[in-house]
Task: inverse folding
């Protein structure tokens, strides 16, 4: 289950996603300061335009990937025995996949 | 119990200190777990806010709720600390700030930046 996100690959994914999340945070902050969420119309119009929508979809992909690698690291360190770790990580996977698909579907529906 | 060992026994918890990097590191983990908990909330809020004008107002009202504000305040600290501590790790990966004295100073800076963001967030939110 964790073979796809372990070792060097997980290390690299964690850093690449971190850089994107950090850059996106500034982009989002400036959009907010510019009034992107001032009203429902403004918010919807902002997220219906291609670049902001794509940037936010990529943000949620980076965010859930980053969270998966991070929580997995924490679980491997503290969650024992193995059945407890696997149950916790299953719940985490469901939460992350649910959040990602929910966010992407909401963004696609707004277009 | 007789203690014939001449080494000092030092278990006074108020005087045992973790190195500042250890404090920064565990705070980075705690902040990460907090931020993870915010992900489903963020996805829910995004969905709600895009459904329509009434739902948008509902999402806004939710963000104005006292308990939610408290959680947001904590999240501001979590994000800032995770960001600065993470930046520090990225720089260390690039061989910047690896030596002990610099590492200690940057760990302290990350903790300080998180605390500063917490104070600023408190002023903005409350």
Result:
């Amino acid at each position: 289950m964790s073979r796809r996100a372990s070792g060097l690959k997980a290390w690299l994914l964690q850093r690449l996603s971190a850089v994107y999340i950090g850059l996106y945070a500034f982009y989002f902050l400036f959009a907010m300061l510019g009034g992107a969420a001032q009203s429902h119309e403004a918010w919807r119009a902002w997220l219906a335009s291609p670049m902001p929508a794509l940037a936010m979809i990529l943000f949620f992909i980076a965010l859930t990937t980053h969270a998966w690698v991070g929580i997995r690291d924490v679980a491997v360190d503290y969650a024992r025995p193995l059945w407890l770790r696997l149950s916790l990580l299953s719940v985490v996977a469901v939460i992350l996949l649910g959040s990602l698909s929910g966010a992407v579907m909401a963004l696609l529906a707004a277009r | 119990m007789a203690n014939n060992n001449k080494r000092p026994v030092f278990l006074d918890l108020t005087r045992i200190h973790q190195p500042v990097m250890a404090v920064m590191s565990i705070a980075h983990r705690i902040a990460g777990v907090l931020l993870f908990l915010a992900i489903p909330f963020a996805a829910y809020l995004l969905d709600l806010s895009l459904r329509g004008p009434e739902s948008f107002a509902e999402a806004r009202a939710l963000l104005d709720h006292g308990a939610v504000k408290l959680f947001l305040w904590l999240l501001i600290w979590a994000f800032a600390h995770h960001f600065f501590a993470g930046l520090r790790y990225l720089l260390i990966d690039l061989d910047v700030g690896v030596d002990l004295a610099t590492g200690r100073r940057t760990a302290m800076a990350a903790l300080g930046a998180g605390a500063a963001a917490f104070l600023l967030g408190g002023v903005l939110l409350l």
In short: Chain A touches chain B at residues 15, 18-19, 22, 25, 37, 39-41, 43-44, 47, 60, 63-64, 67, 70-71, 74, 92, 95-96, 98-100, 102-103, 105-107, 109-110 (CB under 8 Å). Chain A has one domain: 3-110. The helical segments of chain A are 7-33, 40-48, 50-78, 82-109.
